[in-house]
Amino acid sequence: MENKKTFYITTPIYYPSDNLHIGHAYTTVAADTFARFKRLTGYDVWFLTGTDEHGQKIERAAKARSQTPLEFVSQIVEGIRHLWERLAISNDDFIRTTEERHKRVVSDIFERLHSQGDIYKASYEGWYCTPCETFWTESRLEGGNCPDCGRSVELLKEESYFFKISKYADRLLKHIEENPKFIQPVSRRNEMISFIKSGMEDLCVSRTTFDWGIKVPFDSKHVVYVWVDALTNYISALGYGSADDKLYQKFWPADIHLVGKDIVRFHTIIWPIILMAAGIPLPRQVVGHGWLLLDSGKMSKSKGNVIDPHTLIDKYGVDAVRYYLLKEIGFGSDGLYSEDALINRINKELANDLGNLVSRTLGMADKYFKGEISSPGPAEGPDDELISLAGDTPAAVEEMIEKRDLSSALGAIWKLVSRANKYVDETSPWVLAKNPESRERLNTVMYNLTEAVRFITILTSPFMPNMAPRVWPLLGIEGRADLQGWDTLTWGKLPSGTVVKRGEALFPRIETEDKKA
Ligand SMILES: [Zn+2]
């Protein structure tokens, strides 16, 4: 146990100023899939998610409801936890930045960087966008407005603490260049390299414009701004710097920080520099995934085009929603959301391809052999092709997971699903069943199909965790860990005499009003 390889993956901590939408659900489902895959393949995994609970937006939203900020966020955080439960998210911890274990680490790091001269106080004048909590230089404004949100800005002068990130720029650049996998995909890596090369200004890391945050430990007029506060969650959750830091010792540095492409810069420039300054090793990899776009552009609360994940789960089920998200958003690219596309994938890839393979296999085994499958006879016809593809698929899936390409990993599994469906057509069990002399051949065909279903069930389990627990009882191997693990993906392990049975459709077709759909 102690010698198991470790794997630490994080999602961004979400900002609970409102309920989360399907885009946040994608990030968390993707991280969950990596975590489940690593557990399945024998790693000791730590999977962290959480919430970033400070800042002016939350302070204001709470005030508008006559609540304290903590009361306000706590309700939303409950909703987020509930959503993750519904989506079968297997996180090991959930960090809230309002927790003592977190605040202590933020104060400690801020104080340390200040005492070593990397954080200094200076007077600052700039154009401030309140909704974005961001200062802009005059040259960055667009038409006199905030370049991020387009709203009006006001000229503010305040004393702030600044972090000398420019001091570490060369070291960071060298690290990025020497570690090609540090930032994925490559397009994001190139963006970050040119961003650093274009020159970096020191970063304003405190605010006096609001109170709802962690006080600067030696200057209580200031609160620590989001950078040092939020990003530090990845180590505070592991007990960094506390009396009990065994999780930190075991799991840091993180193997993957999975983030949306809009926050890659914070995770690949600001966060590594905070760590460098504090003398802490850098994470191994930051993966910036694409967005789920709508016809009307990026999903956002201000545009009012938000898709509520609960509605989709209610209508289509957890596994179908997870499958759709993971398949639709390709590595390094955006996905385009539409409910029609979701229904199409459910009907074609889940109901027709996968669901049908399982129900045909079990139905025929039941009909021809009362479910009892015996050892196969000699391979003939298309047997070898099916068996050899099944043997190659685990490595193909693993390769795509290592490339952080979940959509292509599913593609590799579906190649096997298609091959198995083609095998049914090629071997035509219903023809074999008519001839008593073909009985042994018919058994071999049913064995191969059942074994293919076992393979596919294991392979899909990190993506659609609710499917395997439904399939194992149908395959008659419930509770048989020796037939359900990644290390059991060797063809022919399914024991002779296994008794399978029919079950309900795994993925019922979605009937739409348009009969042609
Ligand atoms: Zn703005």
Question: Please, could you describe this protein's structure?
Answer:
- This protein is of the alpha/beta class and 517 residues long.
- The chain has a domain of 161 residues: Orthogonal Bundle (Isoleucyl-tRNA Synthetase, Domain 1), CATH 1.10.730.10.
- Helix content is 47%, strand content 15%.
- The protein is built from 18 helices and 18 strands.
- The model has no long low-confidence stretch (mean pLDDT 94).
Quick structural gist:
This protein is of the alpha/beta class and 517 residues long. It is 47% helix and 15% strand.
Secondary-structure map:
Blueprint: E1 6-14, H1 22-40, E2 44-51, H2 56-64, H3 69-86, E3 93-96, H4 100-115, E4 119-129, E5 134-136, E6 154-163, H5 169-178, E7 183-184, H6 186-197, E8 203-204, E9 206-207, E10 215-216, E11 219-224, H7 226-231, H8 233-236, H9 246-251, E12 256-260, H10 264-278, E13 286-289, E14 292-294, E15 297-298, H11 309-316, H12 318-328, E16 335-336, H13 339-369, E17 372-373, H14 383-402, H15 406-427, H16 429-432, H17 439-460, H18 467-474, E18 498-499
Parallel strand pairs: 1-2, 1-12, 2-3, 7-13, 12-13, 14-16
Antiparallel strand pairs: 4-5, 4-6, 6-8, 9-11, 10-11, 14-15, 17-18
Helix pairs in contact: 2-3, 5-6, 11-12, 13-15, 13-17, 14-15, 14-17, 15-17, 17-18
Rounded average pLDDT: 94
Q: Strand fraction band? A: 15-25%
What does the overall shape look like? elongated
Q: In the CATH classification, which architecture of one domain applies?
A: Orthogonal Bundle
What's the CATH topology name of one domain? Isoleucyl-tRNA Synthetase, Domain 1
Number of strands: 18
Helix fraction, binned, reads: 40-55%
Radius of gyration: 27 Å
Oligomerization status of the protein chains: single chain
Given this structure, which CATH class of one domain is correct?
Mainly Alpha
Question: CATH homologous superfamily of one domain - what is it?
Answer: Isoleucyl-tRNA Synthetase, Domain 1
Unreliable stretches covering 5 or more consecutive residues:
none
For the terminal residues, how far apart are their CA atoms?
51 Å
Ligands present: zinc ion
What class do helices, strands and sheet pairing give?
alpha/beta
Number of helices: 18
Major sheet: order of its strands?
3-2-1-12-13-7
Largest sheet descriptor: 6 strands, parallel
